[in-house]
Amino acid sequence: MANTAASGEELVADSHLLPAIAVGKKTGDLLREYVKSDSKPTALLVFKGTVLDVKPSPVVAAFSSRGPNTVTPEILKPDVIGPGVNILAGWSDAIGPTGLDKDSRRTQFNIMSGTSMSCPHISGLAGLLKAAHPEWSPSAIKSALMTTAYVLDNTNAPLHDAADNSLSNPYAHGSGHVDPQKALSPGLVYDISTEEYIRFLCSLDYTVDHIVAIVKRPSVNCSKKFSDPGQLNYPSFSVLFGGKRVVRYTRKVTNVGAASSVYKVTVNGAPSVGISVKPSKLSFKSVGEKKRYTVTFVSKKGVSMTNKAEFGSITWSNPQHEVRSPVAFSWNRF
Questions:
Q1: Domain range spanning residue 224?
Q2: Cys bridge to 139: 40, 43, 69, 192, which one at CB 3.0-4.6 A?
Q3: What is the pLDDT of residues 82-91, one digit of tens each?
């Protein structure tokens, strides 16, 4: 089974009725040329055992969901990535491992890949965080998973995209790959109340009936709504300049680390954008204390970025924690 360009070098362990082996596009191209050049091509399949410590790892799966967010471009998607390739999972006795009607084999386990495999991993982590921090809201849990995610693989290089082996970016990996241990103690979280979500939905011009159905509240009004959906207190930033040169957002963080904590900001900017953060230092006297900061993004003069995106990050850190938010920049709607 040889990959085409759509799957690149990603190898997925599918079940087959006949003995089979999966190879990437490069090897597949060589095999196709060999078959064309030999009237009696032969091959030998040898199982060499389970391979451990694969490098580089992780990589973004070729089938993984991608941005940009074309519905609400002011919100960066995806949020995070997690394990979802070649996962040993429970399997129903109602059907064979290939899913074909003619497959009479039955097994309690199967190796599967897809977002349906990564979703249980992330959901399980959310449950773990809720058990450790019962007082945290869903938004706080999401924030902890996002701001502690990592973007370097096990060779200490930036994450790669299995689709074409290029460097990945936040439109492919969001905030990065989840880190369960670090998510348990994120230091700061970006919390979002139901009222803030209502203002967000109002800014998207949902009808009151639609919003009532979503938030399950008998009475809702849009007398207060965001002028820009990007004002939502989200753990990441998606800056759409449109016809503007300046975009400004204010975020609020809650200290869930130790009392008397001090964080300093580090900005990783994009070549075409200037970024300033005020204040540049946040001091918390107590646990649960909230602080605001404002980020100003300025598109540099003379920049023509039609249908192109750039990326950066904003990180609040102290000796114990790094609270990282990816930033995506676009000049036009995709």
A1: 193-232
A2: 192
A3: 999 999 999 9
